[in-house]
Design goal:
- It is a single chain.
- With 453 residues, the chain is of the alpha+beta class.
- It folds into 3 domains: 106 residues, Nuclear Transport Factor 2, Chain: A; 152 residues, Nuclear Transport Factor 2, Chain: A (Roll); 113 residues, Glucose Permease (Domain IIA).
- The strands form 5 sheets. Strands 13, 16, 17, 18, 19, 20, 21, 22, 23 and 24 form a 10-stranded antiparallel beta sheet that branches. The protein has a 5-stranded antiparallel beta sheet with strand order 3-4-5-6-7, sandwiched between helices.
Amino acid sequence: MAQAEASLYSESSEPVTLHNVAYAPMEPVFQAAPALPTGRPDPALAYPAAPVSISLPASKPALTEILPKSTKMIADMIRQQAGLVSGDEKILRLRAGEGIGALLRRAGYSANDIASAIEAVADKVSLHRLQIGSVFQVAPEGFRFSTKPGRDIYVINHPESGWLALSALRPVDRYISFFQGVIDDSIYRAAMLAGVSEVAFNEYTRVMGFSVDFQREVRTGDRFELLYEVERDGIDGKVIGVQLHYAGLLLSGEQLGFFRYNGDGNAFGWYDENGNSAARTLIRTPISGARLSSSFGHRKHPVSGFNAMHKGVDFAAPRGTPIIAAGSGLVLEAGWKGSFGRYIRIRHNATYDTAYAHMARIAPHIRQGTRVKQGEVIGYVGSTGRSTGAHLHYEVIVNNRQVNPMTVRLPTSERIDDQHLEAFKATVAAIDSEVLSHGKVRFAGAVPTKNVQ
């Protein structure tokens, strides 16, 4: 048996016989990888490959293509929608404690008409949110009121369908205004005397405020110019919107000119003719209408009486004057800080911080860790801490070292993207054409020459 087993495992290639049964010689089996089951075929492959036509959804139509235009007289809309000739119209205002039902009773509507009219309009607007003084234009066959700018709600008694409600867009008239003027003692006074819209002028000073200190740099004889668009309600003539498109300034013979560009994404903003942004990391003076009462540098301290380095600038202003963030950033400190009184410090980027001291109070939403935007109100002028009168102590800190806020070089934002440059140039050309249509030419030249330090 041992001899038989020995022959069974013999390395010979000849067949081995054991108990009269022939066995083939054993060979090793090599398996490179485990055999995996094949995946189930996609059921879609069983269908014939017929071409499929897909219709893409149509773009959402503009409201002007859907809604009718409001009419000056409600009788005109009643005639358009119901084919009726309306009776006399009257103007009623919603009184305190009064609902729309009580107002319609004052207008002479029956109880059934009031109920049907309210049922028709309830799906259009929340009647509980109507404000005291809301104006209703009422006729026997229907009435009109408004809950949002530029939109009217009409409720009309149709002879076949009964009471129905519909929305309508109020017509808007647009006008372009261009003004040029010479500054005497105040740019604000000169602009108002010229007839400039105060809304447009406020935007003008905001845009120019990145480059110009209006409190100290503007001189008698300097010239200003601005072009803006006014939107008026086509029915009552009220101004509903003002948008500045161009701001120019001739400052001691040096030129500044900036244009609004409503491009996509980051391209929106204000730029000079070469596409350089008007915006800067920081606004030089974070308070409006203040007087510079103490400059940066060595001085005799008004409280201690000792000569010391004044590491900021002081702006005297009435108590409660709003203080704005000079730039967007993160609030590092917000609270009481010894002799500084109520104090805020903002980190704008890896290089620039700003600090604000002696505030009467800090805006309620401002605290350590809050993110603020440039121009946002962060506090109010006061005289807290070691102070002799209401003022703002303002510091600009570069790489953790206080510098003179009035002379520090403030970097601009990036240029407009090259992909938007051609469209921006077309915007500049359109503004120049509009100025020419007023019989004038811009005096702010192609390249602003003011070197802001």
